[in-house]
Amino acid sequence: NAGVMQNPRHLVRRRGQEARLRCSPMKGHSHVYWYRQLPEEGLKFMVYLQKENIIDESGMPKERFSAEFPKEGPSILRIQQVVRGDSAAYFCASSTQSGISSYNEQFFGPGTRLTVL
Amino acid sequence: DAKTTQPTSMDCAEGRAANLPCNHSTISGNEYVYWYRQIHSQGPQYIIHGLKNNETNEMASLIITEDRKSSTLILPHATLRDTAVYYCIVRSPYNNAGNMLTFGGGTRLMVKP
Fold first, then answer.
1. Does A55 contact chain B (CB < 8 Å)?
2. pLDDT in tens, A48-106
C-alpha cells in the first residue's frame, strides 16, 4: 500500500511564476490536508479538503493560493505569482473518513520543497 | 484544541530509553494526545495516540497521567535514527471542522552514540 505521494519533490520558480504542487493520498483516504513549513519553523495548517469540497481553508493566504481535490486525480495546491516568501516545504497529509473514530490519524507525504528565486 | 508545552531539546544515549514529556493542563474530556515526529527534511510521521489509558505499539509507549494534564512518550531503546523533532498534539477526533493538526515547537531529540 503506497503512502502519500507528492510531486515534484523539489520545485524552483522565479518570482511571478506559478507553482503547482500535487498530492495523491493513500489508497482509501478521502481527506487531504496541506501544511506549510517555512525554514526553521514548525508546520502550519493551510487547507483541508474532501473530494470536490474545501472544508476548511482558514490557514491559507487569501490571495494567490488555491487548492482543489477533484473527483478524479490528485489534490493540487496552486500558488500564483510566487514571491520569495513562498519558499518553503509544503506537506500533504491524508486520512480516512473522519467521524467518530480516534484512528483518523494523518499520514504525511515527503513534501515539496519550493524555492523562489 | 488544548495547548501543549514541551522542552525545546533533549539528548539521549543510544540504546537507552528516551522519555519525552508533554504538558497539556487544559486538555478537555474528549481530546486525545497524539505524538508525531519529523526526521530532518522528511514529512511528519505518526507515532502513537491515546485518551487516558497507557498505550504501546511497535514504535513507542505513551504514558498519560491520571488527571490527563501531562504525558510522556517513551522510546524504549533509542537509536541514532530516532533523532528527530517530536511533536505532542492534543485534539479531538470528533471535531470535524477542526481536523487540522496544530504543531507547536516540539522537542528536538538528539540521540548520541
1. yes
2. 999 889 989 999 999 999 999 998 899 999 999 999 999 999 999 998 865 445 556 78
Residue B99 has pLDDT above 80, yes or no: no
Name the interface residues of B facing A (CB cutoff 8 Å). 32, 34, 38, 41-46, 49, 51, 87, 93-94, 96-106
Nearest-neighbour CA in chain A from B52: distance (Å): 13
Please write the tens of the pLDDT for every residue from B50-73: 999 899 999 999 999 999 999 999
Per-residue exposure over A50-64, b if at least 16 CB sit within 10 Å of its own CB, e if not: eeeeebbbebbeeee
Question: What is the pLDDT at residue B88?
Answer: 95
Which residues in chain B are closer than 8 Å to A48, comparing Cβ atoms?
99-100
Nearest to B99 among A48, A100, A110 (CB): A48
